[in-house]
Amino acid sequence: MLDLTKVAHDALSQEDTGWNMGSFGAIAEFHHVAGDPSPAPVDGLTQVTARGGVRIDTLEGVTPVAYETLSPKPHRWTQAVSLCLPDERAAMNQRDVLTELGPDAGAIRAENRTDILFDMGLKQFQVDFCIRTGDPELLEILRGNVGQSLFEPGNPAMPAILAAHPHRVALTRVGRVEVYQMIGGPDTGGKSPEGPHTHVLPKLLRAGRTHSANTPIPEGLTPCGALHPENPVIGRLGEDKPFNQAAFDAFQSLLNAWAPKEYLSAKHNAWRLLEQGIAASDANEPDSRVGRSGWRNGIRQWRILHGDSALLDDWAIAFDRDAGLSDPENPGH
Asked: Could you tell me the residue ranges of all domains in the chain?
């Protein structure tokens, strides 16, 4: 039986493992950048660089949910382990206006603990999405607009935030992610910076959802954060890379321990039928969304593991076709 604390501790020292905390529309991500100092063992479940940091404060009561999701690109898939709490334990403050919270005494780095934390008022269920600053000019503007929505027409606070690039801090019941780099936008050429970064996407915020419908989180649980172990076919910058068997095998161990049984059953059934040489016309895909996702990823992974074949081409044509089951790999990037 896998120990979640050990998995998380080991993951924090792996350069190719990313982390995030947030919601469907407001998320803070922590990634190591190639060439930066390698992650080193730290006390507790913490990792911090000059670009950002992640800290797991508690895993008590956390249910890990491992999953693979379909990529829009038919030779890929994405993967993660969500750190979930029961809905009632996952809930945060859900403020809907800019709110000053005072000095960030819980900051990962001691040097930031006197800077002032503001909840942006995004009203997300499982995350208080905040900014942190000690800049007197930005503080004056923010304090002058406390109690108002950042999205009110004419509110000068949001333009000031985008111009000043304060730290962003995502707070959840399991921990926090901090981002020290610039906000993606005009000052970064319209792209998110490499490594730790944030996304606030108003269109997704309006959906009022805690996670994508394609993420198989069991009912009654809310994802508060996630770790993203090395993907065997996708590089850290989103590029294709040669298949990494070790990374594939490592995640399959997490998947076999913590994935929805419906997903595993569908994927393994697809593999069994393909191994037997069963024609696509004689195979029946699962009825459920989660099952179809496992079935389709099974087809994709079988090609990576065993190579091309006419049989596999027929399966892909018959079954790997439903665009509604896939999400953009990097929304907002």
From this structure: 1-259, 260-333
